[in-house]
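Structure first, sequence second, as always.
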């Protein structure tokens, strides 16, 4: 373990627990001895392998992209995506895609992918802007001051805060902190106002407003009598026109799931028989033993029929096709009888209810103002506050969770938080071990059997110090969001809500483990103990450790920005799985179709926190080790390019948070502001610099006050859309005369003095309350771009009576027996099986799939309309 000695104002020696700045120092005026910093060599050791890896990845990508078009460019032609949303591509050359990436505006992603996808790219652009502004502000001023700060640091440590011993020079750090933090607060405020206007314009458009989900609200734990249709308007308002009661249908759901499972078993067995029989026939023909009659052919078929035992290894052996066909038919009949006897009004009361209103405005008003508190008992009263959700689409609903009892939901929430906290705490053990690797010299001094490492060549030691710690840290952290998402899906009513909760949890984890624990590096135990005994020591601990850990994050950003962004484009792991595992395990046409048409999506709960923590680290280090800002900006820029390619060509948004994930990320980013202020408070305390300390104290409390005011005014507009089309124009933050933007002071002052190409962007940036209003954003959404003409207003979605009737019913009450997809063959076995299945009411088809000359399954990749399982989704 590294030593926890800290350098104070008297010049006592310390040894860096992160190992990046391994030195022993005294007051610089007394001529203390110093061992040279290894920061530069560690960075080079991290950069070389990551750069070479990135070059190899990109080279492979360029050469194989055209061959695996379905993997690297499905958004250009897949029928599962509406033709109007296809990404234009000039050709299929090795670099033709670069033209689209370069020239297509991000607005194209907003129009043709999703609001969340556009906002994610905007978030990355804003992080790049913050880093760029920070570099322009800090580098010209703080680099020279740090370099001439009176210390004796070497290499990159010379331009960090740790080289400053002249107290008067610390005023520069305090002034720069004031300016930079004010800029960050302005940018966050501006983006939140912008988001309000964009969401209002986007979600109020005719196409979005006409969707069934836009005028439907989910109420969890509704009051007694809500399942009675005659009480609909009395309880939920006069504008309520339809309801879908959700009650406990677990028994029906289990039978329906078993029916589906047996149907897939039947399909697999029939396809296997068809393939085996035809391959045996091909083999017989090849060997000159061609069948001369139906009898030989029937023998081939009989020998190819699969069988299995009812109990593993010991039960009765049965014909798999006959048995699974019989079971599927019996279970389908059982499901139908259970549905006929089911009545939502009589089945254990309503656990939840979906209510459709006449239009979007009525739904918004009910969501905002409807008071059900007086209609529920005291136990439910504590739960009713936030247990209503608007805009929930059927495919995102987690049905098992919305039928939970109030007690189960409360206990589930507490249990999930306890489990998450435990994961965060105990994950510090492996993260702490990774931190010790960066201080390998100190580690070998304390652990004898590791002393052989001291004899390794300097290049190998540099690799261990520079490359291995951030690589292992990235690997450790990558598994955490999967755990968090699994936990969140046990209690939240929908995938989007689970993703938002995952985002909160994973951000907390990122800040604690990737930032704080790694900064304290020797593990959380000693630090947590100190903080528990003396909470006021937090600024001192942060102040002492942050300058020493800065070089770790330089290599961390190198690894993430260079290698990981290249891997983000190549995505070799999924490609290998797609190629090799598909050939090994995909036997039926359905398996091949599912793998072929699967499109990767972005998980907002894991994507946002990673980059929000990048921003937290960069902001926290902005005045302590300004070089971090540059490395963070470059790393995020490379990620931006990789995600831009993916969202244009390969990714499809699967979870719709309607911009809420972006809003939370902006709030989370302010953690970096507070940590920056706390760290500077700690550093100024250590240096006993009262003037800069007082300046930071004032800024700290002003930040808290400003954050409170910002939330007070903006949060309601983020949560609630306007009740009337022009309501947002009456709000103080979004009020302005729209015609000609006459409310713009910047344009008025600059008119005639500055060219419009300079004046307009400046005005838009500095006056979001005018240019981000709902009407202004609606006009912006309709504007044409050079490579994306102004879109015509889409036809609002229309629904059949059956689609509306089944929209928010539990799938167990509406799902049909899966239609089996067989493969057509020359022996006619598929036609025979279709007839046999039809006799017991099981639908089957062999359209769009056949056996080739070698007996392998091929399906209609170029014509999805022939595929029996393909259907265009209903846009709810």
């Amino acid at each position: 373990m590294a030593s926890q000695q800290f350098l104070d104002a008297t010049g006592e020696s310390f040894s860096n627990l992160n190992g990046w700045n391994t030195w022993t120092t005294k007051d610089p005026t007394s001529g203390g001895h110093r061992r040279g910093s290894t920061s530069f060599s560690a960075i080079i050791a991290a950069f070389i392998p990551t750069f070479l890896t990135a070059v190899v990845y990109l080279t492979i990508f360029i050469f194989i992209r055209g061959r695996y078009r379905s993997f690297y460019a499905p958004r250009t032609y897949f029928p599962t995506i509406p033709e109007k949303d296809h990404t234009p591509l000039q050709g299929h050359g090795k670099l033709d895609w670069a033209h689209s990436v370069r020239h297509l505006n991000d607005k194209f992603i907003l129009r043709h992918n999703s609001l969340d996808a556009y906002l994610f790219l905007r978030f990355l652009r804003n992080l790049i802007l913050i880093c760029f502004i920070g570099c322009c502000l800090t580098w010209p001023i703080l680099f020279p001051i740090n370099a001439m700060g009176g210390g004796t640091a070497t290499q990159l440590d010379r331009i960090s805060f740790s080289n400053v011993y002249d107290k008067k020079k610390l005023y520069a750090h305090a002034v720069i902190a004031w300016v930079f933090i004010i800029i960050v607060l302005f940018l966050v405020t501006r983006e939140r106002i912008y988001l309000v206007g964009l969401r209002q314009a986007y979600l109020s458009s005719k196409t979005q407003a006409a969707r069934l989900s836009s005028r439907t609200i989910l109420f969890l734990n509704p009051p007694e009598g809500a399942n009675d249709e005659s009480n609909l308007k009395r309880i939920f308002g006069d504008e309520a026109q339809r309801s879908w009661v959700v009650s406990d249908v677990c028994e029906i759901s289990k039978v329906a799931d078993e029916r589906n499972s047996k149907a897939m078993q039947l399909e697999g067995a029939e396809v296997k028989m068809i393939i085996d029989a035809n391959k045996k026939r091909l083999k017989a023909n090849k060997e000159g033993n061609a069948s001369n009659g139906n009898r030989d052919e029937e023998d081939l078929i009989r020998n190819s029929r699969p069988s299995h035992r009812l109990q593993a290894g010991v039960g009765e052996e049965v014909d798999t096709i006959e048995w699974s066909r019989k079971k599927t038919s019996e279970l389908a009949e059982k499901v139908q009888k259970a549905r006929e006897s089911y009545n939502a009004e009589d089945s254990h009361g309503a656990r939840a209810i979906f209510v459709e209103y006449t239009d979007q405005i009525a739904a918004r008003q009910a969501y905002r103002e409807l008071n059900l508190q007086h209609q529920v008992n005291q136990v439910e009263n504590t739960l009713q506050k936030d247990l209503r959700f608007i805009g929930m689409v059927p495919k995102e609903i987690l049905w098992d969770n919305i039928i939970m009892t109030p007690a189960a939901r409360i206990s589930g929430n507490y249990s999930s938080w306890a489990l998450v906290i435990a994961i965060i705490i105990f994950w510090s053990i492996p993260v702490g071990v990774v931190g010790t690797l960066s201080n390998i010299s100190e580690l070998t001094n304390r652990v004898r059997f590791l002393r052989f490492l001291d004899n390794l060549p300097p290049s190998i030691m540099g690799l261990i110090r520079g490359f291995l710690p951030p690589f292992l840290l990235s690997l450790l952290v990558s598994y955490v969001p999967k755990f968090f998402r699994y936990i969140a899906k046990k209690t939240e009513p929908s995938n989007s809500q689970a993703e938002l909760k995952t985002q909160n949890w994973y951000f907390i984890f990122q800040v604690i483990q990737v930032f704080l624990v790694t900064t304290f590096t020797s593990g959380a135990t000693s630090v947590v103990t100190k903080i528990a005994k003396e909470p006021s020591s937090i600024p001192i601990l942060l102040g002492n450790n942050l300058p020493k850990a800065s070089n770790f994050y330089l290599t961390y950003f190198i690894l993430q920005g260079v290698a990981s962004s290249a891997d983000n484009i190549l995505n070799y792991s999924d490609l290998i799985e797609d190629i090799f595992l598909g050939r090994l395990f995909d036997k039926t046409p359905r398996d091949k179709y599912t793998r072929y048409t699967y499109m990767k999506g972005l998980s907002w709960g894991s994507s946002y926190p990673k980059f929000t923590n990048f921003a937290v680290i960069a902001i926290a280090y902005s005045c302590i080790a300004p070089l971090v800002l540059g490395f963070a900006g470059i790393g995020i820029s490379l990620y931006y390019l990789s995600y831009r390619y993916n969202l244009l060509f390969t990714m499809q948004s699967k979870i719709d948070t309607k911009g809420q994930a972006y809003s939370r990320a902006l709030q989370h980013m302010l953690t970096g502001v507070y940590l920056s202020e706390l760290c500077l408070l700690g550093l100024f305390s250590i240096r006993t610099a009262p003037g800069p300390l007082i300046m930071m104290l004032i800024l700290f409390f002003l930040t808290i006050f400003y954050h409170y005011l910002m939330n007070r005014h903006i949060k309601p507009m983020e949560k609630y859309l306007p009740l009337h089309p022009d309501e947002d124009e009456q709000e103080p933050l979004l009020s302005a005369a729209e015609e000609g933007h006459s409310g713009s002071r910047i344009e008025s002052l600059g008119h005639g003095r500055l060219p419009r190409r300079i004046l307009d962007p400046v005005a838009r940036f500095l006056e979001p309350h005018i240019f981000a209003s709902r009407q202004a954003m609606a006009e912006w959404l309709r504007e044409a771009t050079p490579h994306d003409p102004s879109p015509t207003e889409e036809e609002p979605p229309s629904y059949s009576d059956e689609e509306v009737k089944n929209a928010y019913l539990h799938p167990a009450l509406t799902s049909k027996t899966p239609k089996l997809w067989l493969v057509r063959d020359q022996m006619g076995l598929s036609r025979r099986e279709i007839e046999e299945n039809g006799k017991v009411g099981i639908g089957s088809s062999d359209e769009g799939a056949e056996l080739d000359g070698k007996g392998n399954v091929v399906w209609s990749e170029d014509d999805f309309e022939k595929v029996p399982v393909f259907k265009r989704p209903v846009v709810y």
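Margin note: The two ends are 57 Å apart (CA to CA).
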